[in-house]
Amino acid sequence: MSQERPPPPPLTKGEVAKEYLTAYNSICTLLWLSVFGRVVVVLPITGVESVYEAAGDFTKWTQTVAVLEILHSAFVFMSPKECSLQKEFTEHELTLHPGLVRSPLPTTILQVASRILLVWAVVNQFPAATSTSPFYSSMLIAWSATEVVRYSYFVLNLRGSVPGFMTWLRYNMFYVLYPVGITSEAVLVWKASEAAGEPWKFVGWGVLGLYVPGSYTRSLRQ
User: Fold this and answer.
1) Assign residue 92 a region: left if phi > 0, alpha if psi is -120 to 50, beta otherwise?
2) Which of 32, 37, 87, 194 has the fewest Cβ atoms surrounding its Cβ within 10 A?
3) What is the C-alpha to C-alpha distance for residues 189 and 215, in angstroms, rounded to an integer?
């Protein structure tokens, strides 16, 4: 009579957190890949006028999911003992610095908040001035291409196997996509500010004055 195998040991908090991060980053990869696909399929067929209808709502909610990343940076899911057994990784791995991931909390809040501002307070509130602009399409292409690579990299990093080409893309696409993205974002904020009228357009100008240099600094820290 064969002996029954003992049940596998329960997962530690660190292992559960790693599985959660893998699932989260995998889902985000698929969501942003869908945004990218919607834009590049619609754009050459019906033009920039149809991009918002095809991808606008989906992009808003996909970007809103990133609010979870603030929680990832803010809360510790491992005990200090478990944390001491973890390797020190360059990014998005399990440590006690001070949350589930190593991303600094202030940087994460600013980055997520700036994207939320773009999709909800700028494009969603002033669609006539922003959604049919070619800069809306270029912003979505820059965002989605960046995020597909970033989240894919995190998944592979969590699994301990990152191909060299993915590392190259992760740290070099910035030089192409950042100028496209930040220029598109700035133009859309400007258009929304002009559509809002006084005194809100002056608020928009002030946001631009802080947003552009701040966005550059945050991107370098990613």
Assistant:
1) left
2) 87
3) 14
**175 in catalytic set:** no
pLDDT, tens digit (0-9, with 9 covering 90-100), for 102-136: 777 888 888 888 899 899 999 999 999 999 999 99
Q: Which member of 185, 198, 211, 216 is catalytic?
A: 185
Please pick, among 15, 178, 198, 211, the residue that the annotation labels catalytic.
178
Q: Which two tokens stand for residue 175?
A: 């030089």
Residue 144 φ/ψ, nearest 5 degrees:
-65, -40
Q: In sequence order, which ranges of the chain are alpha helices (DSSP H)? A: 13-46, 51-64, 68-74, 80-84, 105-116, 127-130, 134-158, 164-172, 174-196, 200-221
Q: Cβ(73)–Cβ(105) under 8 Å? A: yes
Q: Tell me the whole-structure pTM to 2 decimals.
A: 0.83
